[in-house]
């Protein structure tokens, strides 16, 4: 029977992250009462678990290839500055627009929802960048994306990847969220929709450029605002609606671009044959 390496990786990644959250983060918080900065570092170490798992257990997930060849391929695409900055601006801009709309509805200033906290700004930015954006992408958009793309067309593959990535966060919704009452329901729905949508957007960039720097910056653009955000559930409802509007538009543009590319290739091949 053929080994399902993708299924093996997904199950292992879930077991590992939940074990780390319960035993490492749980101990640091409840037993040692670690300060916020230390807990942030602990969360960052946990966020890297998809990469630890992939590289340490490599022979169990991709026995026919070397780690070096895989990593080189994940970063093989040429980096172009405009689309790279666009990848960051896209998710950051959607979050900022959501906050702007929410502030209008609540009749408050945007800045009233920004809490700088006690951590210095440069350290906050550094810790945000070295969390999920750099820690998760090799596993999710590197390994998992390639495996799902072998099985399914673009959109189905992207949705499957998004759902796996989304529910990988399940335990965090319970232990690291302030929404523990009725607001937990729209919060979870928002996570499912937004994380799946972000995966689709990431894959549009990666399909064209094939370099994880794009998904890293797109991921970072989404995460950075939440380091300072102090907003109620209404913000996440608005965020969900925006992603439900913007993502299908991005997919339509991607499909139209792909159609034009195929048409140009077909006409070029016909000219060569003639």
Terminal CA distance reads 48 Å
The proportion of residues in beta strands is under 5%
Coarse morphology: globular
Number of domains: 1
Helix content: over 70%
Query: How many helices?
Result: 14
The major β-sheet equals: none
Order of helices and strands: HHHHHHHHHHHHHH
| Overall number of strands | 0
Sequence-ordered SSE layout with sheet pairings:
Blueprint: H1 5-31, H2 36-47, H3 49-56, H4 58-61, H5 67-74, H6 81-106, H7 121-129, H8 132-135, H9 137-151, H10 154-167, H11 170-175, H12 184-209, H13 212-223, H14 233-273
Helix pairs in contact: 1-2, 1-3, 1-9, 3-9, 6-13, 6-14, 9-10, 10-12, 12-13, 12-14
Which characteristics define this entry?
mainly alpha; disordered C terminus; 274 residues; globular; 14 helices; 77% helix
Any overview of this molecule?
The protein has 274 residues and is mostly helical. It has one domain. Helix content is 77%, strand content 0%. It is built from 14 helices and no strands. The C terminus is likely disordered.
Summarize, please.
The protein contains 14 helices and no strands.
């Amino acid at each position: 029977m053929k080994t399902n390496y993708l299924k093996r990786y997904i199950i292992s990644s879930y077991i590992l992250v939940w074990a780390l959250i319960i035993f490492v983060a749980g101990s640091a918080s409840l037993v040692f009462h670690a300060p916020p900065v230390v807990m942030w570092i602990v969360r960052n170490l946990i966020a890297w678990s998809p990469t630890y798992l992939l590289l340490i257990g490599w022979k169990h997930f991709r026995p026919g290839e070397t780690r070096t060849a895989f990593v080189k391929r994940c970063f093989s695409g040429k980096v172009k500055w405009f689309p790279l900055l666009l990848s960051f601006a896209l998710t950051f801009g959607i979050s900022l627009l959501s906050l702007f709309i929410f502030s209008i509805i609540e009749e408050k200033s945007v800045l009233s929802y920004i809490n700088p906290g006690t951590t210095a700004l440069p350290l906050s930015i550094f810790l945000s960048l070295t969390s999920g954006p750099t820690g998760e992408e090799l596993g999710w958009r590197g390994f998992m994306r390639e495996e799902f793309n072998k099985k399914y067309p673009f959109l189905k593959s992207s949705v499957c990847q998004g759902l796996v990535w989304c529910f990988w966060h399940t335990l965090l919704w319970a232990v690291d969220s302030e929404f523990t009452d009725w607001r937990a329901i729209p919060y979870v729905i928002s996570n499912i929709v937004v994380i799946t949508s972000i995966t689709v957007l990431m894959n549009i960039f990666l399909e064209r450029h094939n370099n994880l720097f794009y998904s890293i910056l797109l991921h970072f653009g989404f995460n950075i605002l939440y380091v300072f955000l102090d907003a109620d559930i209404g913000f996440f409802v608005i965020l969900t609606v925006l992603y439900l509007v913007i993502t299908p538009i991005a997919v339509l543009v991607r499909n139209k671009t792909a159609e034009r590319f195929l048409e140009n290739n077909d006409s070029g091949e016909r000219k060569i044959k003639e």
